[in-house]
């Protein structure tokens, strides 16, 4: 009755008011009498008018900007994925994407399209939006600095850091002496040009370095602590020097710049002595809370904006103010994590790629059009590497580091990445760098960042060490080893319960390793230990309840699926257990479309198609992450579809064909270790027609007569399935079940899908 009542009300209201609107509009026509109404007559038909209007809309500044953002994000993510696959930081791919969208590639081969996508009149909007992204990013960089580590390890770190600045700075000034006459812009003093060349040679990309340290599994070592501290000290020192250089360039002389530097010192003092204690008090009030109220967020954003505004007005650039605002944020890990999460995604994913493209639009590789310029580019790269790499390495060796650690520090400190582009763009905006020098320096930034990974590999090879800390956690013996890889804490508990049931009575001859991998882009150097604790505390609590000892493995990575497979394949494990993930499109109409289209446009699946691992039209019953793990693992793998698995007392195992015989080994383990009751379903009369299966079942019945029940029903009753805790099925049989859309699949319990 209520539904009919609502329907009647809806019809009366919408219908009645529609009639009223029509009546008012009709009466309103009479009001036009006596007024000159100008109706623009058009000779074009309606379709042509529509196309004209559409073309006009496409040329609107907002439409152009939105189109640019869509293109930039898509291309940046694609290039980032490509470079991650070849072992490089994704930021390198995004920088290359920016260059590709600029005059060096897109503008060179498709000038008409480039002029439509990036008209000159639109570049101002792109620049200002990218600057907002940079301000937010520098704010995050400031927050990522762990000043407590800097205090504790300041002695050696400051020596190495300052040496890694002074040496390349001096070499940069020396290089400026030889190229100033030909390449410095007209009207720019040698002091300004040389100082910018010096500071450009001295930069280290702290964010990229920190992620490489995490991915290389050295962040917990003494070397990792030293290099992170060096990079932090380098960042602070370099930005202070850059602020002074900007002041000198803008003032025109060193003496005039003293006024600017004096104001800058006053500004820093106010931030440290007044603003920082105030923010700390706010942080102390909210350090136990899981989220920040809007007024508190407003206070911190206002601090960021005021700091950036003040530093810009003083003349030391808004980015220094953003960095300073981040550095004085309350040093409470939880507080910083919440705030970084609010800011980082917008800055890194949405706005920062705009900066890369804006830099790419300024980078004209076509200007480097003769051998001399390429030789000069090589000389710039050589000076940068000698100054930063070897300068840092020699300083590290001087303070007592081994040659291997010293060279590793040098290779990492030589990483320039995004921070170098920030400095170069500031120099370009100030008119200190010409387009040729800017382009050569961008190439230098790319080369010195790209070489970091190979340089570290070469150092490790020379000193015959292994970079991956994988097998160290697992004893090399004949024990039955299970590796659990988890992302979700609840799934981790279910996986551990299952693993425990497989080895409960064989603890002395078995090991369980729980592993969690996180994307390095989502980790921050200041709270790695906190993240690890947060991830493993629930599963460690569960292991205590089960009285099951486990080993933990926490790793940063750029490719979770590949690393899971590599660790499992090379770790001498007997079984890898993972949970089934879910697609973000699952259960939607878009998901039904993308279920096919992602098989076409997904890069990983295209690779598998061309290598013959998967047919283009093959339908996978798994999400993309699980599918990748299945395809890359070379050892037994179990995929758990978890339906709140608590116990493994009743287990249902369907046998479809002779290849399913290996499932009986897991049945035996569950019976022996967990006293599980196993229900084995003979789908195709395998019990009598296959000797291996028949022998295995006879052995189980003989040894565990009370734990084995044989079945040959073709249809499973819902009541029976409801009493089961777990179903174990082979991978191929599971695919057949999904393809056949068996009606009893909707009633099954948790499922362990095993690939032998």
UniProtKB/TrEMBL annotation:
One of its GO terms (molecular function) is antiporter activity. One of its GO terms (cellular component) is membrane. GO terms for biological process: proton transmembrane transport. Pfam families: Na_H_Exchanger. Its main location: membrane. It is a multi-pass membrane protein. Keywords: Ion transport, Membrane, Transmembrane, Transmembrane helix, Transport. The keyword Transport applies. PANTHER family: CATION/H + ANTIPORTER, K(+)_H(+) ANTIPORTER 1. This is Cation/H(+) antiporter.
